[in-house]
Amino acid sequence: MPTLSEVARHAGVTPATVSNVLRDRGRVGASTRQRVLEAVEALGYRPHLAARALAEGRAPTLALMVSSIANPFYPEFALAVERAARTSGHFVIICNTNEDPLTGRAYLDQIAGTLSEGVLVTNANLDFADLHTTESRGTPVVLCMWERPNEPPGLPCVAVDFRRAGELAGAHLLELGHRRIGAIVGSKASGIHAARYEGFVDALRAGGAPKGRVKHGADTIQGGYEAARALLESDPKLTAIFATNDLPALGAMHAAADLGLNVPADLSVIGITDIQLARESRPALTTVAVPTVEVAGLAVSLLRELIETSYGQATRGAASVPMRVASPPELVVRASTGVPRPR
């Protein structure tokens, strides 16, 4: 592979001039710039990003921390992040923690500030102390999809009102006439989906409906399947199930099918997020959509701002911690919800 020095010799200029042309810095005459670009093209030169990162102390990459790349939400979000990052000339490194804080800490220690210029975090089960440590070392961190806009986390973030998402889901089922409604929460009672369930309960309370049974489990199709079977076997008169995410909602539909129930005639099912599978399932899943693409764009934009303003500093000092709030969630009615059949 040709080196920067070889490009300089081919163009009859110094390596510094080649560097200035490629970085669009300094004063370089038009004819000189053209010679350099022609030499780059003729030799097939490509900058060595790792070497540049070591030389400049910064890298043209952003790290995206996710809890499980097997969850289809994260590839969709990563695609949106990649598109947003590319507009500023950044690449994206995907760091899959498998919901293991130690793996996440290793990524932060080995990548933040060396291979990546900043870190985006999406429900990656990371210790906030580790994230603050990363910040203190001069690498900005932005939390994506923070679920409680009224409770700032003490780190830069992009927030979505997931409590409102739960309210919309509950209100939709009540409007259809459902009163015996079970709930599947894809986290522990105090976990990341708690705000979604709180919003759902708020809607039931406002509509005068009983709280109903709830099952906490894994945020997966299998987790939703197991929780739904347990709910339906313990209360066969349930007419609807609310799930705090689309994957458990899809699992609930599978469980209904195995129990001989028709969705939505016998059982209505609703989720939250609006992943691609929700649109492609049969019946298509009613859900509350969150602005995934918008959040990705806001998160990348905020991280770039932090990189530009705090790069090279140990901390942000007394500056306030920024939070961007995305557009409100929206109900998307599809075929998995309907009026309850009299029993």
Could you explain how this protein is built, in words?
With 343 residues, the protein is of the alpha/beta class. It folds into 3 domains: 4-47, Orthogonal Bundle (434 Repressor (Amino-terminal Domain)), CATH 1.10.260; 56-139 and 292-325, 3-Layer(aba) Sandwich (Rossmann fold), CATH 3.40.50; 162-290, Rossmann fold (3-Layer(aba) Sandwich), CATH 3.40.50.2300. The protein has 13 helices and 12 strands. It has helices at 4-11, 15-23, 30-43, 49-56, 73-86, 101-111, 128-136, 162-175, 194-206, 221-234, 246-258, 276-280, 292-310, and strands at 61-66, 91-96, 118-122, 141-146, 157-159, 181-185, 214-216, 240-243, 268-273, 286-289, 323-325, 330-332. Strands 2-1-3-4-5-11 form a 6-stranded parallel β-sheet, sandwiched between helices. Strands 7-6-8-9-10-12 form a 6-stranded mixed β-sheet, with helices on both faces. Residues 311-318 have low confidence and may be disordered.
Throw out a few tags for this protein.
343 residues, alpha/beta, 434 Repressor (Amino-terminal Domain), Rossmann fold, 3 domains, six-stranded parallel sheet, six-stranded mixed sheet, 44% helix, elongated
Strand and helix map with partners:
Elements: H1 4-11, H2 15-23, H3 30-43, H4 49-56, E1 61-66, H5 73-86, E2 91-96, H6 101-111, E3 118-122, H7 128-136, E4 141-146, E5 157-159, H8 162-175, E6 181-185, H9 194-206, E7 214-216, H10 221-234, E8 240-243, H11 246-258, E9 268-273, H12 276-280, E10 286-289, H13 292-310, E11 323-325, E12 330-332
Parallel strand pairs: 1-2, 1-3, 3-4, 4-5, 5-11, 6-7, 6-8, 8-9, 9-10
Antiparallel strand pairs: 10-12
